[in-house]
Design the sequence.
């Protein structure tokens, strides 16, 4: 990854982009160390005074997660159920602030995993059908109230 320019031209965004590319390529060492260069740049005064102290935290916290990422952090193995949960969160996302959406994702994923797997421990097709029908029934019941 080459951008051109001198040492003084490196920005926090450049450093974050570099670390992301290196991690996605799988070339990081298991012991870490991929953000040490950032600390050196900061100590040398090449980064602004308000730059984050470390890229480590900045790399972990990248802002709001997408609905897909909210579901994936819980490791839903069944693809149809995963898709259904993502669709549900996408549907609700426009009417909720991010904090509420995040909490809803946690709650729905725990409840969905528990209730669906309890009712249908083996058959994933029955799980999906049951969950979809249950959700549709509840939506109809709310709209008629």
Sequence:
């Amino acid at each position: 990854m080459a951008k051109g320019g001198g040492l003084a031209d490196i920005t926090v965004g450049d450093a974050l982009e570099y670390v992301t590319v290196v991690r996605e390529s799988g070339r990081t060492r298991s012991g870490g160390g991929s953000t040490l260069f950032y600390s050196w740049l900061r100590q040398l005064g090449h980064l602004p005074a308000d730059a984050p102290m470390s890229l480590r935290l900045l790399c972990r916290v990248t802002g709001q997660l997408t609905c897909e990422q909210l579901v994936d952090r819980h490791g839903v193995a069944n693809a149809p159920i995963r898709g259904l949960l993502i669709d549900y969160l996408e549907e609700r996302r426009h009417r909720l602030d991010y904090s509420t959406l995040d909490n809803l994702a946690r709650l729905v994923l725990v409840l969905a995993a528990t209730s669906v797997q309890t009712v249908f421990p083996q058959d994933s097709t029955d799980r999906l059908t049951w969950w979809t029908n249950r959700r549709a029934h509840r939506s109809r019941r709310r709209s008629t109230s």
Notes: The chain is about 65% helix and 0% strand. Residues 98-119 form the longest helix (22 residues). The CA atoms of residues 71 and 85 lie 7 Å apart. Residues 67-144 form one domain.
